[in-house]
Design goal:
Elements: H1 11-36, H2 41-72, H3 77-103, E1 109-111, H4 138-143, E2 153-156, H5 159-172, E3 176-181, H6 183-188, E4 232-239, E5 246-256, E6 259-268, H7 277-293
Antiparallel strand pairs: 1-6, 2-6, 3-4, 4-5, 5-6
Helix pairs in contact: 1-2, 1-3, 2-3, 5-7
């Protein structure tokens, strides 16, 4: 009588494959909806954590299935390996994010002038939901040397000479400008005075024709300036290249003597830290602006 040997089946290995595939699909859906759709950052972070939890369970079950394959020859080796492959992406991304969170300074608001950061012209929309958002100690961290290289830069000339270069540098770092203040005033400072009308033949000035006086209630109120008189303020929005995390950027041009001081502020719209991305955005913009001013852009 022939003896038929039946190999045991590792249920954990096949469950590892199922859970790993679920984690990968959930991660892909969250990434596409967050990067190209309307999924907010808090919702994306929540889905990423769920996908990472499923991936972690899949890894544990896959290791158990491989152990059963080694000890008793149980079926499921390929399923356990597939579970590990499926879980690698969501678990790896979550691991990198956690490592960056633990090692980056706890700041979400950085400026080249911490004592007097450029004010925003428009409110920055962003529902934090469950994400923490404590008061930022960016000035303390910058004073401690965390971002010692984040300082404003001076350029020769008046602010109106730099506005075109600022806009080109903003496009170079994928920043969309949403509001400005002071550009018209800066551009009109050096404008030529209006010519005085003259009579026929270039003689005496023409006699002006009296016009009706406008009603007081029809006069519009002067615009309320957010920055100091003479400052040029430019507000923009940019997103990170891979995950599309939104950052609000504020640029200030301030004339001092014969130079113009350029200060930049970068604020992460969500969370209590920016993973070091804000400092990289400020450096990239200032380098692009310097290249434009040197004629290298």
């Amino acid at each position: 009588m022939a003896i038929r040997f039946e190999r045991p089946v590792s249920r954990s290995a096949f469950w590892a494959k199922r859970l790993g595939f679920m984690a990968l699909v959930l991660f892909v859906i969250a990434f596409v909806a967050g990067r190209f759709g309307g999924l907010s950052v808090p919702d994306f972070a929540a889905l990423l954590l769920v996908a990472a939890a499923l991936a972690a369970v899949a890894v544990l079950l896959a290791l158990l299935g491989l152990a059963q394959l080694w000890r008793i020859g149980a079926l499921g080796g390929l399923a356990a390996f597939a579970g590990l492959v499926f879980a690698a992406l969501p678990l790896g991304v979550a691991g990198v994010a956690v490592a960056a969170y633990m090692t980056s300074p706890p700041v979400f608001d950085l400026s080249t002038d911490p004592a007097d950061p450029p004010p925003f012209l428009k409110p920055r929309a962003g529902d934090q939901q469950w994400l923490p958002r404590a008061a930022t100690p960016n000035g303390e961290w910058q004073a401690a040397g965390a971002y010692v290289d984040l300082v404003g830069r001076r350029f020769d000339g008046a602010p109106d000479r730099l506005t075109a270069a600022v806009r080109k540098a903003a496009r170079a770092v994928r920043m969309s400008i949403v509001a400005t203040e002071g550009e018209a005033l800066a551009g009109s400072a050096d404008a030529a005075p209006a010519a005085v009308p003259t009579g026929k033949g270039g003689g005496n000035p023409a006699i002006p024709i009296p016009l009706p006086r406008p009603e007081p209630q029809l006069l519009s109120a002067p615009p309320v300036l957010i920055g100091k008189p003479g400052d040029v303020l430019i507000q923009g929005v940019t997103r990170t290249l891979v995950f599309g995390m939104p950052f609000d950027i504020m640029i200030r041009l301030r004339e001092e003597d014969d130079n113009t001081l350029v200060d930049v502020r970068a604020v992460a719209r969500y969370g209590d830290r920016d993973f070091g991305i804000g400092a990289e955005l400020i450096r990239a913009f200032l380098d692009a602006l310097e290249a434009e001013m040197l004629g290298l852009g």
